[in-house]
Amino acid sequence: MKNLFTLLCWFALTFSALANDGYGLWLDYSPVQNTQLRSDLSRLYSGFYFFGKSPTYEVIQKELTLSGEKMLGQSPVFTTERLAQTQVWLGTREELSQVLSLQQQTSLRALGEDGFWRGPITFQGKTYYAIIGNRPVGVLYGVFDWLKSIQTDSFDKTAEKTDSPKVRLRMLNHWDNLDRTVERGYAGFSIWDWHKLPGYVDPRYLDYARANASLGINAVSLTNVNANARILTTDFMKKAKVLADLFRPYGIKVFLTARFSAPMEIGGLKTADPLDPAVIDFWKKKTEEMYSFIPDFGGFLVKANSEGQPGPHEYGRNHAEGANLLADALAPHGGVVIWRAFVYSHELDEDRHKHANLEFEPLDGKFRDNVILQVKNGAIDFMPREPFHPLFGAMPQTNVGMEFQITQEYLGQATQLVYLAPMWEEVLQSKTYRPTPSSTVGGVVDGSDSGKKLTLVAGVSNIGTDRNWTGHLMAQSNWYAFGRLAWDPDLTSQTIAEEWVKMTFGRDPELLSKVSGMLLDSREAAVNYMMPLGLHHIMGWDHHYGPGPWVTGGRPDWTAPYYHQADSLGIGFDRTASGSDALGQYAPEIVQAWSDPQQIPEKYLLWFHHLPWDFKLQSGRTLWDEIGLHYDAGVKSVRQMQETWTSVQDKIDPERHEHVRQLLAIQAEEAEWWRNACLLYFQTFAKRPFPAEIEQPTGDLEEYKSRRFPTAPGIRPRW
Ligand code: BDP
């Protein structure tokens, strides 16, 4: 008996040592196997010298300690002696000025405040490896980049590397409520434990900051855009201050969401009119108080006059007047207002697609310089595929930032593997033709086409209290990809996928090509089994889980038939000049090409056109048949993903493999559910048989319609 107990303990210990629950993200630092590299690194880790002092350098020391122990089984040596024992030099351009040539200093300066240089420097006959930034945080970014090069097998000690972000604010938006529920959160509860703050500081906050800094994310908004004014009370400012202090050495600034009616809710005023002197004074004082706690506070993120949130319209004022009120309060402190363009009226719009442009374009030039308009990637709402939002390129005198959704509200939530970088890449690379004929969304957003300096890429976070942070382990790749694209919107989804796979699962070539292949195919698979050929907004009511093309009731623009418009003649939303003319909000080049159903990319077909079921597509097949083929192809792609995953079983630790295996099985069922339910429903209009080559949809449409998910996660709070 005793022996059995000992054996069980041994097993438990051994397997817990092997177990990998994904907590370490892409920063798990697997051991370096290559002997030459090991010996080079071992030498480098034997002598780090910092040219200055900074809390950020302490962060770097911790990261070097962790990485040294995990990659080499060796603790780094931090020397106080600059020359003899030293192998690696770390510091800012200014700190290293005595050892850098003027030319080196000039080229470093050109990299901007977050840029870095790393490479060999020869000084008095000895070569050092140096990592230099213009600020300590640039050094931190350089160190993370160096560690990444080791983890992705691309470190060359003789090569120089420079990099700097193309976007100024690289920001996560948490939709976290003060009671720790997370709107559209699928990974547990909020990691911000407001109740225990400021007294208790969860160590997880630091791992969160590390992960963000490793990607160059430099701003976080902590609270839900459907905001609670309480966050602006003194008690909560004290709590937010603790987080801001923790994040500062990692180069991360804290933002908070501001509820427009806060002057009434916590200020005791009778109005929140942006032109009222008492309201102006409230915001001025509130902002001053905020800066007394957080001297580098980033600013406010605001959702106003959208989906029931209060805003300037209540007082007959426009969005610019609302935004400028807060901008003026923040300006003396260097803060920024991020004003969301996700608006649609309380009354039914003729086409919700048009609303933001109708409301914001006339305000171009009216916003203060410290306002950024944060625009979702598409005009409806984070659908699996949307054409880019027509506001990009349409407001040349305004700072226009991007809002992506990392949390997979409409893309499988936490039960589906959907790598989102291909979607973001597609949007960023879309041609806007404005402000210049060669402009792209990415160019408008990063300022290269718009000429703007105050640039922003924001992503709605998918982070929660689950051990693996993101619910689905593979959704870590979306946090990773978001950060990388915010740093450089020109990166490809493939490059990013390969980096992430190497850093997460290791460098085995077969594993790399198979798992990155799965990631890269996954988004198109989801589009196919959910909303192919430009279909959109046909998901389940409210929780948005699963199919719901039949959903009616409430506001028409919250229902599915409003968007798919299926009838006995055909399907799709006519947004051309003969319909709502939302298409007319794009540049003439796009209007011309997309007005023609034969010329528009088929992926956007039903987004802009209502077409007969027998309309012929490029394949020569009818629209009805192609819809069926797309749904079926989506299901088959998921099954392929399952097979691929099985084939790499011996290359991945059992815990993470099994986690993903189970979720892929759920995904396969959900994909079939989407296909069957949507095709059976659309068939009631099309009245045609399914194409013979697809797996024939099974199940009972009435049963699909009757499914209810009252406990689905992430449901929005009721106003
Ligand atoms: C929608 C979400 C809702 C958010 C809203 C927003 O369903 O929960 O509040 O976006 O972005 O996609 O404000």
Automatic annotation (TrEMBL):
The keyword DNA-binding does not apply. It is an enzyme of class 3 (hydrolase). Its EC number is 3.2.1.131. It catalyses: Hydrolysis of (1->2)-alpha-D-(4-O-methyl)glucuronosyl links in the main chain of hardwood xylans. InterPro entries: A-glucoronidase_C_sf, GH, Glyco_hydro_67_aGlcAse, Glyco_hydro_67_aGlcAse_N, Glyco_hydro_67_C, Glyco_hydro_67_cat, Hex-like_dom2. Residues 470-693 form the Glycosyl hydrolase family 67 C-terminal domain. Keywords: Carbohydrate metabolism, Glycosidase, Hydrolase, Polysaccharide degradation, Signal, Xylan degradation. It comes from the Bacteria. Residues 25-146 form the Alpha glucuronidase N-terminal domain. SUPFAM superfamilies: (Trans)glycosidases, beta-N-acetylhexosaminidase-like domain. The keyword Signal applies. Residues 150-469 form the Glycosyl hydrolase family 67 catalytic domain. Homodimer. Belongs to the glycosyl hydrolase 67 family. This is Xylan alpha-1,2-glucuronidase. It comes from Algoriphagus oliviformis.
